[in-house]
């Protein structure tokens, strides 16, 4: 007997995504084989914050583990201890992916060129891609995983998780960025460099949405129409205006 499909909403990238029992089904892309290899590697090496990939179903869709729980952007913002936990999970991720044996025929879907390509990154680490399931926290939506750098991946998380609010109070935001960084255990030199990449990453997201709407590229055009670019450009300005304060907390001063 076929199980009922339940449409899942909230994502910005994938087309129709459904839940069937304990699995999520979503369209296959050119990057799917490489993403599956990555998720298999993470599972085999005991990384706790990624879903299982079960291959494809009879309709040719990806089949992944459905993780029940609360999304990271549901309810009040994460506390300082929660942000440290996120930082630790990102550090653990990079410790594994730094040694991921990249397939020789790997194809990735990375919409923004990173600063470096030292290892494989998630590339969309944000509260809307975090599921909290009791003691297990899982990053979902790995479709844009691909080459990047530790700081490039972390810089996006340092904008989205605290989060950086364009009209926010730096006295409230800086300690939250600092908590994420403490969890990751950045060196002082890495901490000094992070705010620069936070600004670049936010600016690049805004530029991507502008390019998408100018060229009719989805889902970027829809996100631009939903006024997301305003947020990213505002976040970039906020980081630039408060660079010194952010450098200090990122260096654990």
UniProtKB/TrEMBL annotation:
<dbReference type="Pfam" id="PF01636">
    <property type="entry name" value="APH"/>
</dbReference>
<dbReference type="InterPro" id="IPR011009">
    <property type="entry name" value="Kinase-like_dom_sf"/>
</dbReference>
<dbReference type="InterPro" id="IPR002575">
    <property type="entry name" value="Aminoglycoside_PTrfase"/>
</dbReference>
<feature type="domain" description="Aminoglycoside phosphotransferase">
    <location>
        <begin position="115"/>
        <end position="166"/>
    </location>
</feature>
<protein>
    <recommendedName>
        <fullName>Aminoglycoside phosphotransferase domain-containing protein</fullName>
    </recommendedName>
</protein>
């Amino acid at each position: 007997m076929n199980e009922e499909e339940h449409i899942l909403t909230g994502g910005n990238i994938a087309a129709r995504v459904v839940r069937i029992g304990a699995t999520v089904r979503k369209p296959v892309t050119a990057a799917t084989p490489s993403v599956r290899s990555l998720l298999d590697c993470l599972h085999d090496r005991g990384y706790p914050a990624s879903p299982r990939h079960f291959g494809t179903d009879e309709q040719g869709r990806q089949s992944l583990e459905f993780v029940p729980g609360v999304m990271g952007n549901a309810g009040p913002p994460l506390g300082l201890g929660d942000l440290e936990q996120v930082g630790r999970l990102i550090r653990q991720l990079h410790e594994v992916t730094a040694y991921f044996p990249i397939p020789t025929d790997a194809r990735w879907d990375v919409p923004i060129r990173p600063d470096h390509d030292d290892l494989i990154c998630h590339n969309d680490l944000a509260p809307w891609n975090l599921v909290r399931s009791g003691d297990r926290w899982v990053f979902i939506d790995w479709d844009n995983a691909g080459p990047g750098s530790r700081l490039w991946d972390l810089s996006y998380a340092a904008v989205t998780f605290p989060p950086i609010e364009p009209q926010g109070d730096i006295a409230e935001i800086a300690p939250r960025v600092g908590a994420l960084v403490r969890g990751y255990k950045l060196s002082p030199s890495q901490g000094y460099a992070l705010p620069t990449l936070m600004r670049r990453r936010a600016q690049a997201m805004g530029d991507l949405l502008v390019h998408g709407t100018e060229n009719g590229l989805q889902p970027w055009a829809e996100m631009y129409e939903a006024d997301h670019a305003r947020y990213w450009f505002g976040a970039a300005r906020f980081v630039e205006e408060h660079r010194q304060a952010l450098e200090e907390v990122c260096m654990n001063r």
